[in-house]
Structure formats: C-alpha cells, structure tokens
C-alpha cells in the first residue's frame, strides 16, 4: 500500500511546484486546484483537499522548497502562495571574465536563464574548489568523497577546471579498514541505534568492549572521532575511529530508534574543539595554568583557556600527556598549578627533556 501512495504524493509535489513556477504572482488555493489534478478531485471534500495541500506545502518547505504565503487583504489570514524562481533554481554558473576582457561574459539568451542570478568563477577560485574537493578525499570518508566528485562533475558541465586532474575525485581505500567501520558508524548515527565495539584506550592502552549511543562523527585535525554516550561510564566520550574494531549495530527493533539525542547537545560546538588534549575516552579534568603575561606567545596560548582564580586560566583536559607536552612548548612561560598529578607530570617531562638535550653535542 505504501508503494502505491508514494508515487501519487511525488506527482502532487511536482504538479504543485510546476503550477507555482508558471506564474510570477501569488496563487490562491482555488487557482492551484485548477492546475493540480489531485486538488480538484471532487471525490474528496473541499476540507480534505485543503488539508492535503497544507501537508504537501509543509513537507516541501521542510525539503527546502521556499513556498511563500502572502497575507490576504484587510489583515485576513494568508490565502495565496508564490514560489519565486530566483529562490528555487540554482544560479547560472559561468566562468568569470579575465582581466584582459572588456566585458563580463553573458549568459545564454532565451527563457529560463534571464531570471536567474549568475555565479561566476575566476580561474583561481576554481582551483580552490578543486583543492577543497581533493582535501575532502583526504578525509578518508567514502560517502563524502563521492559527494565531492558529484559536485565537481556538475560544475565541470558549465566551467572548465585549469587543473586537468581536478575534474574527478577518486575514492581511495582507507587504512585499517576504516572505510567499513565509518560506514557502519554513519548508519548507526543516522538510525540512532546503540552500537557495541572493541576499543583500544589511548590512556591505558588496553582493549575493552564498549556500548555506546552514537551522537555524531567528527573530523578534527585529520582524524575521525565518534562522539557518543558511553553507557558504562554514563558520560559523553570521544572515540578515535582508528582504534575501533568489531562494530555491531543493535539488531533489535531494526526499524525503530534506540535513543533520543539530548536537546541541549550541539555537535557543532564539539566540532569547534581542535586541541589534542580535549579528545580522548578518559574523564575530563580541570587544569589550572599560570601564564607569563610578559611574553606575547604565552598570552596567545592563554586565550585557549577560560578565566580562573589567582590570575590563572583553566582548561578541560582528557589527555594530560598531550597537555603537558603543549605546556612544555612555552619554555617555562606556562606552568600548571593544579591538580598535583598534572604538575608532577609536567615537572618530570621538563627534567627528562633537559637531560636529553644535555646529551646533545
């Protein structure tokens, strides 16, 4: 039954979009009903047909079709609808004129082009697009690489890339079978299904089974991470994909979700993190650091933290080893003051480093 209804809905959507695009002025539902066969079917009552139209309109808007409602006269509720071609169609893509040209290139004559905005690419901009697509390939995610290749093929239909090798982005094989793991994780994130996997911890260097509610995938500093709720730790954790193995998705209730992502969860905020010490599967600790304000590079480093007492800055750290190495790079202009274990680790690393360089001629 579902397979019979779907084509009918898609046909209504196409008919509705076509009817709206044929006119520049807003159309009432009564006018639309004369051009969309499903809305003029007298076998259904007026109210039922109107509800069908409202559902179609809302679903198309959710898909990104910018159908506008135009308010009626004398403050009456919205009673007419319009779909502006400039808001619906993609811009006309063309190469920009070079510096020696007297005028910008003109779009083709004829209907369908004159109402569209122009998106002109200069040669250096096309080169940047090609390099960006190549960078997407280096991210080592098969689906994203395929999307980048599709985008370049569409652009190449209207413009020419100066770099002959930039037209196609090949999908490279991933090391350590990460491609299959990423695809499985991606499915679990989309379907909101609980997953279990073996994971080798960064801190303890031991492998153990994890049961996680996957919230999203992050690509930070050329590394893929899974971000999710670790049920055993009852906390949010980052898992480095290259350390994940034997992933399995909960087979129970395959067509239903296993969990809801918290409303206050924002994947973009987590993606803003670029520091190695913030990523890991351990509990986050607060580290207070004293910076030498007389040194400009130390002041710049202090801006990564948050204000704390006694003129210190505080940092949320999951990997103390990476954090103390970063502090050591300031050459004494940044020193931890708490907690004691981080202070001790920083002092030991400083002593070991000093001993190493004393041996260097």
Features:
361 residues; alpha+beta; Arc Repressor Mutant, subunit A; SH3 type barrels; 4 domains; five-stranded antiparallel beta sheet; four-stranded antiparallel beta sheet; 37% helix; elongated; disordered N terminus
Question: Can you walk me through this structure?
Answer:
The protein is α+β, with helices and mostly antiparallel strands and 361 residues long. It is 37% helix and 22% strand. Strands 9-8-7-6-10 form a 5-stranded antiparallel β-sheet. Strands 12-13-11-14 form a 4-stranded antiparallel β-sheet. The chain has a 3-stranded antiparallel β-sheet with strand order 1-3-2. α5 (123-138) packs antiparallel against α6 (142-156) and α10 (320-328) packs across α11 (340-358). Residues 1-5 and 163-177 have low confidence and may be disordered.
Summarize the structure.
Helices cover 37% and strands 22% of the residues. The chain has helices spanning 2-21, 29-35, 46-62, 85-88, 123-138, 142-156, 178-191, 267-271, 296-302, 320-328, 340-358, and strands at 27-28, 68-71, 78-82, 92-95, 118-121, 195-200, 207-220, 223-230, 235-240, 244-249, 285-291, 306-307, 313-317, 334-338.
Number of domains: 4
- Widest beta sheet: strand line-up: 9-8-7-6-10
Shape: elongated
The first-level CATH class of the largest domain is given as Mainly Beta
How big is the Rg? Answer: 29 Å
Q: Please outline the major beta sheet.
A: 5 strands, antiparallel
The total count of strands amounts to 14
CATH topology of the largest domain: SH3 type barrels
Order of helices and strands: HEHHEEHEEHHHEEEEEHEHEEHEH
């Amino acid at each position: 039954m579902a397979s019979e209804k779907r084509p009918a809905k898609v046909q209504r959507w196409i008919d509705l979009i076509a009817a709206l695009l044929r006119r520049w002025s807003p159309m009432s539902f009564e006018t639309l009903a004369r051009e969309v066969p499903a809305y003029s079917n007298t076998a259904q009552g007026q109210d039922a047909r109107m509800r069908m139209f409202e559902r179609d309109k809302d679903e198309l808007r959710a898909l990104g079709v910018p159908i506008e409602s135009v308010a009626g006269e004398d403050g009456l509720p919205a009673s007419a609808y319009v779909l502006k071609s400039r808001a619906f169609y993609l811009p006309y893509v063309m190469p920009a004129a070079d510096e020696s040209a007297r005028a910008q290139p003109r779009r083709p004559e004829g209907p369908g082009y004159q109402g569209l905005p122009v998106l002109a690419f200069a040669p250096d901009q096309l080169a940047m697009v090609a390099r960006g697509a190549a960078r997407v390939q280096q991210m080592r995610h098969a689906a994203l690489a395929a999307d980048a290749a599709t985008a370049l093929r569409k652009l190449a239909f209207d413009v020419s890339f100066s770099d002959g090798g930039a037209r196609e982005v090949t999908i490279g094989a991933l090391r350590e079978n990460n491609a299959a793991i990423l695809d499985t994780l991606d499915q679990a994130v989309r379907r909101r299904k609980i997953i279990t996997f073996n994971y080798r911890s960064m801190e303890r260097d031991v492998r153990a089974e994890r049961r996680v509610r996957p919230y999203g995938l992050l690509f930070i500093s050329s590394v893929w991470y899974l971000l999710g709720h670790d049920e055993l730790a009852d906390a949010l954790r980052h898992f480095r994909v290259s350390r994940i193995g034997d992933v399995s998705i909960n087979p129970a209730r395959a067509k239903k979700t296993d969990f809801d992502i918290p409303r206050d969860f924002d994947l973009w905020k987590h993606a803003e993190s670029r520091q190695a010490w913030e990523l890991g599967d351990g509990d986050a600790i607060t580290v207070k650091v004293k910076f030498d304000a007389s040194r400009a590079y130390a002041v710049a480093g202090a801006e990564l933290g948050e204000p704390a007492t006694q003129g210190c800055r505080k940092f949320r750290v999951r990997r103390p080893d990476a954090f103390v190495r970063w502090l050591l790079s300031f050459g004494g202009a940044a020193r931890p003051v708490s907690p004691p274990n981080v202070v001790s680790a920083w002092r030991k690393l400083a002593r070991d480093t000093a001993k190493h360089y004393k041996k260097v001629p």
